[in-house]
Amino acid sequence: MRVLITGGLGFIGAWTARVLFEQGHDVRTFDVHAERALFDAIAGDTHSRQVEHRTGDITDPAAVDAAVDGCDGVVHLAAVLIPTARKDPLLGARINVLGTLHVFEAAKRAGVRGIAYASSAAVFGAHDGIHPEPRTHYGAYKACNEGNARAYWDDVGIRSVGLRPSTVYGPGREIGVTADPTLAMRAAAEGQPYTIRFTGATGMDYVEDVARIFARAATDTPDGAHAFSLQGQLARIDEVVAAIRAEVPDSQVRAEGPELMFAAELDEAPLHAVFPDVHRTPLAEGTRKTIEFYRT
Q: Which of 101, 139, 260, 271 is 20 to 30 A from residue 129's alpha carbon, by CA?
């Protein structure tokens, strides 16, 4: 299959490309910038030379049409995160909502078999990880996208899977407040201090696991319009700090600040019912792999 990854030069995009390469698929990326250092570091030089990179804006329907054309599946990751959406809600809506509509419209015209797209645990409120009640513009955009995906299944039969990760961590994570655990691991590997800017608990989801789920959802998309929460390993931030110190005993890593604005405990059972045998990397192993990456 040829799979398009929007936002493909980013953290999860690069890891998803790596997984798809390993599975023998062709990959095309579509991103608003052309900076490939992160992609090359994660996907590897050999794979990076095989990929077809396209530069364009997710808010430009003609550019999205051209990117989707000739592809069998789509992994849609292009988005702005909570701080940008809070600062400029209209820009956030143009990218996160209208951009997603452009992807579904292009998929409809191109006859794409399935779409895997990034939703978020931010669709939930602070205390309920089952019933969506977003408290941020970003979370509201993602909830809107889930509704639109259901409409595309009902109206024109586009299969889709929305995935709701909470804290994705691992080599290459750099942007967003939930990047802080990864940035703390990097700082420990480099002998630098770091303060994680939130406390409480969160689902710690190692990026390679998440990438494998995105790849599976795009290449083996079930009938319907699904939205699955990704729990990973539920952990308190002091457990994350302890995992870092287990690898780097003299690390100067700490945490302070409020808890995240979305629920920590999510229901992953529906995901496993549709995609059995999903691998989950324990926090200790994911922390070790991340610190090893930054050490080398």
A: 101
User: From the CB of residue 28, how many other CB atoms can be counted at a distance below 10 Å?
Assistant: 21
CA distances from 248 to 123, 173, 229, 255 (A): 35, 19, 31, 16
In Å, what is the CA distance from 170 to each residue of 95, 113, 250? 25, 30, 21
Catalytic residue, candidates 138, 141, 152, 194? 138
Q: Domains in the chain and their CATH numbers?
A: 2-166+207-231+262-280 (3.40.50.720)
Dihedral sign computed on CA atoms, order 218, 221, 226, 229: negative
Share of the chain above pLDDT 70, in %: 99
The pair phi, psi for residue 47, each rounded to 5°, is -65, -40
Task: Sort 250 into a burial class: Cβ within 10 Å, 0-12 / 13-18 / 19+.
Answer: exposed
The chain-wide mean pLDDT, for the chain, equals 96
> For 97, which DSSP code?
I
* Known catalytic residue at 138: yes
In angstroms, the CA 211 to CA 40 distance is 16
